Amino acid sequence: MSATSFSFSRIVLYTGFAATGVAMALPGSVLPALLVQWTLADSQAGLLFFLGWLGSSLGALLVRGSLVRSLVLGTSLLATASFGMAFGSRTSCFVWMAIFGAGLGATMTAISLLQAARHAQHRGIELNRLNLFWALGACTCPSLAAHSLRIANIRGIFSAVGFFFAALLLWVLVMERDQPVASQPSRLAATSAGPTSWLSGLTRWPLLIILLMFLPTGIESAVGGWIAAYVQRTQETIATTVTAGSCFWVGMLCSRTLNSTFLLLRRSERFVLGQSMITIVFGMALLLVSKTSLGILPAVFLTGFGLGPVYPLLLAQALQYSENTVIFFIAGLGSSFLPWLTGVVSTSASSLRTGLFVPFAGSLLMLALGLRLLAKPSLPPPHAASK
Prior knowledge:
mainly alpha
């Protein structure tokens, strides 16, 4: 691959990675329209989220051996599932959502590892750039979805996503090649580990770490997935609905950008982690008590801002005990379970506000467990880790 084509390859893969951010935020951004189109109850929408994010967790485990073949698999699943979501029925949408999530997990993991292998000397910088592009994609999704719904419908939106990932699939098939085996990241060996090694690897982490890894991704998915529907029911204005979704992702983008640069170097890990967890609790509490946009928008921003550095810092702690990839699966289970439980509670109580007490309770539990972690005599220094 020539220098010119390699540079263009980088642009294409960065664009594809940003598109996975759009795709990850898309179900939550168009949730009000999905509820109407498929006449779903909140509990059914929660199941839709559960299947999607569980599929994403399992999709990451599909990446093994050739990274290019894994990327072909991921983009194939994404393109197929996007068209399935566009033309599927009220029943089949659950299957397509699970496949959609699996494609996202495989695609994001394959691109991350492929770029890490190609930039082994500056791996940390490369992965940080990728995650910033992902966050930018997630930030733009609510606005893109709102504008698209004015001129099209759910079928048109998911079809556009399908065509994009089909085009990316063609590029990968024609242009991308694996790096030599010697330059592959050493952690790739962990992705081929069997279920027995995953289970034995659980014993390497303290129970406190395992419980904590489950929560921040769950709170992120629950709030990010349900906020558009909640704000629409509370405010009944398109502008506030779109702005609320954007505020959440912008808050996360800002805090991850700041804490991956100079701020984390100037402040202790204890301070950042403790302050962030307190910010999440405060943001969630403000969201639940606010009934106007003047309270809801700052609440959503604060929740996203607080969530930003928590997962990377907790992951840094976990990786010091073991680099077994099952820790990523545990985090993925949280992102599947809490959105689903939010929908179940919302349907049972006939109130989405009541349903949002699920991520609020999760934030309180995370703060309590986090304070126990911070109370330990010493915490090892943070490592470079990214979601």
